[in-house]
């Protein structure tokens, strides 16, 4: 029942590190046990519909480069696209996929028609999911591509756009629930501004806070048990996006009383654009208790826009999965490849090879991270570094009853004159390099 | 009673826009009424002790360039420095100044000696303040220069550094209160990390939250009526500073229950380093209700470090003061020049000229901003843009009782199909250019 | 003979600085004399076809927002587009326009058909140019949008693409010459690489050098008397573009023996993306003797991609035109608006208003720059600063016969111990602020 | 004859990849043969005097953190410093070192005294070099730290500074020659500007061009057979440094006729600050024929200043040494660690551990690069990609006699319509990941 798009290929085997077969895994072995859990269950890979099957290869200075038999705006093409997609998910042994409404169905003439198209294609998905065993990591709504969203979705100055967006999210949540999606994601690509001159930021934040509360209420109403996730990004396409980074999203959730209801889906590329390392964003989410899922890609360090490349730097992946493991690993979340081929990578094979390389890179990173956790390679020195805080006097400062003046009195009475100790950064960096 | 450092100069007059006298104001006229308030009372200028009187002109690749008679680590030098400083404040008609403990007194051999040196110099300040009428906008403690703080102050792995920092802040708050300072500022220059490998972020945030709570409690205990301000900065000297930007600080305050106790002191250069425009940070603070004060300087747009230059771009200042006016203007806050001479600007005159230029630039910005406010030049179009939200149906979405599904039903029933309207950005930009 | 696109508007008058009419000039007065030359002849404004008439309002995350009656891929639409374009050029009193082949004609099924379409539309242009008096500042070929150019034009690994590009440039040069264009521009949007892994940089540079030599030879062969211009850009769409910035282009021209044949067309936004200020790129071109023309826009300082906004910061424009005047002003070059509306600026009026604002901003900048030149406001202090180099001993070092060891001997013999002098940066910044 | 600074340590052994000894090499094995050459002879490691022995641990917001027994401004301290330095070079088996004059000797009261101090310490170096076998990779002069250089060295507005700089370079070249240095480096840290307002760029470039010509003439005069190297950097401490990047330096060398006399010393961190990848700068130097040597460190990708960290990312090192091998490997050049400890890394051991980690990282990179070269892993696909250029018709375009019009005629005659082929970027990235 192959679509033929990938030729005669029927599987992508795991062949181990020495393989030179570009269509084999060298590190991703779903059944391999890592810290007592199958590698597949750690990584929970998902493939993204949008980049791999919908994006035509355009960039701001050039148009379509890919020529795919499923390009076109009909239900038949949508079904063909789905068939190829599920074939690829299976070939890659990816247990999950993710999609926006716009990725999978033609736009209708009315909202109702768009919704029905989505529901029809969801029927098709159900069949393919049953056949292949592939599951839905998360669904989401595209509230940024159509011109109606040009000035925002929930933050639009026009309340009709807020309404249209609400209806769209409802439809997508309904489908996500039906397909047993494990999360529902909101990326506010147009929730921000182009210029402060025409923007009332306070008002728009309130609109966005209300919108998210409506989403959470609806989740509970329909009994959707997945996690609601916000995906931070600092800018692009907007000059400024309100969900700038993890710390900003945290403040937003606190402001609108949602910090226990919503978590974050962190993308490597968005972290870089926000001026952070990927592991920083992961560590921040962990520290603030809102870590949810990851969008895996990489951003070119020399480019100021979202390059969404497949990850290829193992040491960076090791540090990322180290944070994931410290956060307790994924619960409903997973590793979604929000990564796209370079627009010159025209061949069907390129799609497979890119995912294989990315999955192998993540698998190597995970294994290195797990070894560091098991060896307490970094946590041992860390505990030592903060050991002074275990003492009663230190705890009294931290938990009370000490006050600023009681501490000050003690400093003078005891002649406290703290002496610095080495932070041992290079030592720790060398340790990491033993594992990667 | 001139120190002679500025030669025979006895005043810097306001001479109006046509003056070519480099030692005269062309725009800053303290008594001029702007929106019914004296210009001085709008701008509330302060001069920073550190850059103007303490910084020797060094940079990461070169040492001291300035040769000042007060350089040296004795109380006599500290008094001479104060005398020159107050002479400059007076010449500039700056109503305020700001300082760190380290700027104004020699470091003692013990904490107690350092504290006493600070208190002694504060006596001297009291005399000079009484003579000149110059007031204290804010005091602060330097918890970043000495090697004891290299791994953080309140966030240090060593609780003794936390204690030392607490004692230092207490001493500085005491002096600030005595000198009738109108605010107390905390800039966490070392509260962050160099590498996540040796850092427990969650623990350090808790330490920092506790520290700030101790400060607020002490403020109330001693009856200090000024505002506690945090000054955000994304990085430098650390790789990452926890008080990254305004939105991050807001989340931090919410997390530790301090959003009604603490406000932000926003620096132009720090905004730029965080990837934001200055007016963005101001608008964010306004939207979140935590706007306090500003550190005025400018960062070079092509440099990735804190350049702390004097402001010189009037259109940017107009947009900044526009946000300040929309926030209701300064209450306890003000415009502190956290700006330093270029290290090649060796002459006494350079110090004056830099401040004159910066003050004139702010004054022009303020006047333009005030005119825009009075003309409703931007707020008129803004109100129009969001007018749709005044309708009951829109309010029902925003305030209830609408829900996601009731909205969705209405979208389908009414066939809602929102049509975009021009955002008119260029029109608004041209309007601003009529005022600057 | 109005197209009706701009309603009944028949002219955009100059009304002076106090006008509040959004459809009037406040500063651009073509006939006003500046340093003995008409303002129009200084600024030599051109309007760009691509952004204003061809770009549909898309960005990487969203599609078309503009709805223009001339969108569509037929010759009739192309003629309508031209009619609206020339109407706008006339309304704006812009003496020039600029275009790519792709902007003005439908793509044909073959190269020959594309070429013929171009020639046909050029006939139409000739008529409109004669009617309106609008002239062609420069023509250029789009060698980046079509998928055939995805891996480069002259630098493509496939020599057929080199050939196709050569044929395209020839056709565009022919038309440019016929339309009496005053320059011919090459922007190498795809002349660079996505990854070094598949790139032979040395080979590609040689291809590009050869291509430019072919262009220059052809120019002389056909007697085209305009200037050949290269437009530097550091990246985007490519990861790296070989024409990175002015200094890089200079090295390239020297390498291929073209430094006396080719000059640069400098874009503000590209300067910013390359990590430079606009005036830096202008000053560099002046110092290296290759200044040609400018593409006027502005890049958002917080965005890492080409935002191509209309300029609105007068102080920056003053510094830019100051460099242009120091370079002797434009000869064949001019001020081309390579600026586009924000994608939310949907209305016909927005197109006019954006250009009016940009032209006014340039006019203010020019006037300020001219006043600084006439007053020797900056050049006076500059001459003083370097005055030491006029002395014979200094000239002997610079021109000979001094050598390293003769100089060293003199340093020891004379006990030379140079003392630094103030660079007076703030003083000079204040001077500039007197003019803007 | 140990100084005792490193305790009782007498050697740092190579123990292989499985070693957990932080004071052993796991990958750097000087004698191991790589592509038929000893690893030591490939890598040619040098240790930098300045960061490791002279830098006190300060940053723009904090002072000295390191406490070294040799800190102080006397000849005795200078000798102690040298003794510790040579002890470390030996422990690390680093065959080379590098230094500035300022690193190794106290500043004298006059130029002559400074020169004599340098010559005296050079005597001491000669002894230590003879004892240890450590050689000098390069010498250089510090023309940026002292206040006399604040406005430039050769580009100073004051010709006396030019003279002083010339004398300094002469003295350093003399010592470098005496110590059999294999290169002489110029880094123009102050050769640039803070503001264009006080800068005559054309004049300053001419001064710098003349200076470099004087240096080259002197090299030949004294028979120094090493290579003259320029080290590019885009900015910091200056706003703009004239030796911005490799391509800029190339243009500069061409302008002043020195492209066959001078090569580049490329620093990873400077590449990053200039907006380039390290391998880009290496590839550019190779393409332009001016590759010389490397300064090995890494810049934090999220920091906008020179962080000079020790390298730790093996995949990046592999791509870097791949370029070095393609360039034919080092001739006089080498791998100098222009890397400094983090200022919190206080212990003697940290100095060793940082270098060990960096050297191991380079060794792994070299081995991976060599394997890629030997397998033609990347060069094979590359040759295939450009194979079309081998055809006579392609060569006729590239070398002649084809012209723009003859090519155009052929395009039309043959109906050339080039079809894009996959660039296979992900495939190639996966290949690289097989080697690292």
UniProtKB/TrEMBL annotation, chains A, B, C, D:
Self-association state and partner proteins as the record states: Homotetramer.
User: GO CC annotations?
Assistant: cytoplasm
Catalytic activity, reaction form: alpha-D-xylose = alpha-D-xylulofuranose
Please give the PANTHER family that the UniProt record associates with this protein. Answer: PTHR48408, XYLOSE ISOMERASE
Name the GO terms of the biological process aspect. Answer: D-xylose metabolic process
Chief location category = cytoplasm
This chain's protein is named Xylose isomerase
What keywords are assigned to this protein? Answer: Carbohydrate metabolism, Cytoplasm, Isomerase, Magnesium, Metal-binding, Xylose metabolism
Necessary cofactors? Mg(2+)
What's the EC number here?
5.3.1.5
Active site residues per record: 100, 103
Starting at the broadest rank, the lineage of the source organism is: Bacteria, Pseudomonadati, Pseudomonadota, Alphaproteobacteria, Hyphomicrobiales
- What is the similarity comment for this entry? Belongs to the xylose isomerase family.
List positions binding Mg(2+) 2: 267, 270, 306, 308
Q: Does the keyword Cytoplasm apply?
A: yes
- Cofactor annotation comment: Binds 2 magnesium ions per subunit.
Which residues bind Mg(2+) 1 per the record? 231, 267, 295, 338
Cytoplasm listed as a keyword: yes
């Amino acid at each position: 029942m192959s679509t033929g798009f990938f030729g005669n290929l029927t599987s992508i085997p795991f062949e181990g590190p020495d393989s030179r077969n570009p269509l084999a895994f060298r590190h991703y072995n779903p059944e391999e046990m890592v810290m007592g859990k199958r590698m597949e269950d750690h990584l929970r890979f998902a493939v993204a519909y949008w980049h791999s099957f919908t994006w035509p290869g355009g960039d701001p200075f050039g148009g379509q480069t890919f020529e795919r038999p499923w390009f076109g705006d009909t239900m038949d093409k949508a079904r063909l696209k789905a068939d190829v997609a599920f074939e690829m998910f299976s070939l890659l042994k990816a247990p999950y996929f993710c999609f926006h409404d716009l990725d999978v169905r033609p736009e209708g003439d009315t909202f109702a028609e768009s919704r029905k198209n989505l529901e029809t294609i969801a029927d098709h998905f159900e069949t393919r999911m049953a056949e292949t065993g592939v599951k839905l990591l998360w669904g989401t709504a595209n509230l940024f591509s159509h011109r109606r969203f040009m000035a925002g979705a929930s933050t639009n100055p026009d309340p009709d756009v807020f309404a249209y967006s609400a209806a769209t999210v409802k439809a997508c949540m309904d489908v996500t629930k039906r397909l047993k999606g494990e999360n529902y994601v909101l990326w506010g690509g147009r929730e921000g501004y182009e210029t402060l001159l025409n923007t009332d930021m306070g008002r728009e934040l309130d609109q966005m806070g209300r919108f998210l509360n409506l989403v959470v209420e609806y989740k509970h109403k329909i009994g959707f048990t997945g996690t609601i996730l916000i995906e931070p990004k600092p800018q692009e396409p907007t000059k400024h996006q309100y969900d700038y980074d993890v710390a900003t999203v945290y403040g937003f959730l606190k402001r609108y009383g949602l910090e226990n209801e919503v978590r974050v889906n962190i993308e490597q590329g968005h972290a870089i654009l926000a001026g952070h390392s990927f592991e920083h964003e992961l560590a921040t989410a962990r520290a603030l208790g809102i870590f949810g899922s990851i969008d895996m890609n990489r951003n070119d360090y020399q480019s100021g826009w979202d390059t969404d490349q497949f990850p290829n730097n193992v040491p960076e992946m090791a540090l990322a999965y180290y944070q994931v493991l410290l956060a307790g690993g994924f619960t409903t979340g997973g590793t979604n490849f929000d990564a796209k081929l370079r627009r010159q990578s025209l061949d069907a094979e390129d799609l497979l090879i890119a995912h294989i390389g990315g999955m192998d890179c993540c698998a190597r990173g995970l294994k290195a991270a797990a070894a560091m956790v098991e060896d307490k390679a970094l946590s041992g020195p860390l505990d030592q570094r903060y050991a002074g805080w275990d003492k009663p006097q230190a705890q009294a400062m931290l938990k009370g009853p000490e006050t600023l003046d009681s501490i000050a009195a003690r400093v003078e009475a005891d002649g406290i004159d703290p002496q610095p100790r080495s932070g041992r950064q290079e030592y720790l960096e060398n340790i990491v390099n033993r594992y990667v």
